[in-house]
Amino acid sequence: MTMVPGNWYAVAAEHDVPAGHIYRTALGGNDQAIRELAIWRASDGAVQVWEDRCPHRGVRFSLGEVVGDELRCQYHAWRFAKGGACTFIPAQPDMKVPGSIHAKAWPVAVSAGLIWTGVDPVGEPPVLGEGAAIRAVPVARPLAEVETALAQADLPGLALTLQPLGDTETIVRGLVANGDCAAADRALAALRRQLECVA
Amino acid sequence: MILYDAHHVAPAYAVRLLAGFLGLPLELQGMDVYPGHDDRSDEFLALNPLGTLPVLVDGDTVFTDWQEILAHLALAHGPDWYPATDPALVGWLGIARDLAASAGAARLMQTFCVPGDLAEAKAQAERLLDEVERRMWFAERAGHGWLLAGTHPTIADIAAFVSIAPCEDGGLSLRDRPALRRWCDRVRFHPGFVPMSGVFPPMANT
Ligand code: FES
């Protein structure tokens, strides 16, 4: 199994999404299609996790721009507010935008410095404890293999969680208890080399 | 100053970008690389026997290396962009040249049908992008926003940006290279930014 409906998955760290930036990632695999995600913050700091596709013509939201309290699509500058509702269509400035025009917004939880989402996630995200969010490390192997390798690896002080991207790629995220992100990065880079060499 | 330029050539874009940031007027001499092959004309090869773009003519001096042009313009018009006392500048300009030969070459093969070994170019580019991503992530944690430590962007940022920002045209991806995407935003939002096809400008802030 890779991605399981009902689970929460960490897809970014809080520091990945400074004000005004649109962060881009994806989540999926197994029988769940890959979902491209665009993540940004409204001006009150509320994190938005949206499908990375404008409902107008399907352009990636992550090519767009945060303007004030809204995300503006790069192509025809439609604007979308927190929650996903389209608020303004420049080609029809006098029209009240129909409520049916909506970005697909995903469930969001923020905990332990990480941003979590999922398909119909149940309850709260897993508790990783205290520590600094490490640099996310992508590994070109399926989630199950990465999971097995992590279970066998000696990685003291690291609380890790996995983000599946399709059936061949997994991102390792998590926290390092003592805050030594550089050491954590070296350990995960070694793990990545080991996993990617096994053909 | 005359710049022999082609819109899609990343090293030529680097010069236009620095000129934009410095507010320098350039007289652009547009070259028809394809299908015209202006860069193989006797006239151009007399100016630059290597036949590479861009070429800058400043007074009596002809510059034929894009990084040398960046250095020349920065030294003459914006020394903040050329921190000569920081050895890291040399390292980063080298990485930028390697990026041009890999990510930049992949873009030319994929988008402009230039012949070459696409798989090898992409493999080398992936290694470099991973490393620049890693360094930029730790630079951000240390409070820096640019490739070199400090508060001001340098010609190294420009030299790397022109290969990294349009890398998806070469079949590479910036998805899940978040520090590089944030750094690209910082370059794009720096006053004086000029775009290139494949690199979006910030929209008017309305
Ligand atoms: S595709 Fe987004 S506004 Fe047209």
Automatic annotation (TrEMBL), chain A:
This is Rieske domain-containing protein. SUPFAM superfamilies: ISP domain. InterPro entries: Cholesterol_7-desaturase, Rieske_2Fe-2S, Rieske_2Fe-2S_sf. Gene3D superfamilies: Rieske [2Fe-2S] iron-sulphur domain. Coiled coil: none annotated. Pfam families: Rieske. Residues 8-117 form the Rieske domain. The keyword Zinc-finger does not apply. PANTHER family: 3-KETOSTEROID-9-ALPHA-MONOOXYGENASE, OXYGENASE COMPONENT, IRON-SULFUR DOMAIN CONTAINING PROTEIN. One of its GO terms (molecular function) is metal ion binding. Keywords: 2Fe-2S, Iron, Iron-sulfur, Metal-binding, Oxidoreductase. It comes from the Bacteria.
From TrEMBL, chain B:
Residues 1-81 form the GST N-terminal domain. PROSITE patterns: GST_NTER. The lineage of its organism: Bacteria, Pseudomonadati, Pseudomonadota, Alphaproteobacteria, Sphingomonadales. Keywords: Transferase. GO terms for molecular function: transferase activity. It comes from Novosphingobium nitrogenifigens DSM 19370. It comes from the Bacteria. SUPFAM superfamilies: GST C-terminal domain-like, Thioredoxin-like. This is Glutathione S-transferase domain-containing protein.
